[in-house]
Predict the 3D structure of the following.
Amino acid sequence: MEKGSVLENHTAGISIIAFVIAVGISLGYYQFIYVPQANQKPVLPPEVVNPPQTTHVRIVPGASSPSQTINFVPKQAQGILGVSNRVVWTNTDSVPHSVTSDDGYNDLISGPFNSIQHIGLIPPGQKFTFVFTVDGIYSYHCEPHPWMQGKVTIAKEKF
């Protein structure tokens, strides 16, 4: 056997072993360090996660009728982060409804802004509660009755 081919075989073997070790280290880092940090929920002040006041929205009787122009009262609810950023929708209609984000908003603490994913449709006489932990404007609608539309504005300070 020639000296050059033995050296090439060892180099190839060492390269493969180095590659396997690098892949193993990368997978370990990804699984045990990166993923847990990426999925970690942010630490927020207690008053943001559990605000002292609640903003209320009513789903009015007859809201499922396309001719009804008033569906959510108030149609544009306002809350203050750390004060009244918990919003409760009460269904006073005789049919089930949903509160579904127009843009698929997913809160880092509360999860998807969509009653269907939390409790399903909101039955008559029942409530859906959502805590917004980031200020912003959140447009929503009723999934079975898309003409029903509303908006929640959560501000950092008083309006």
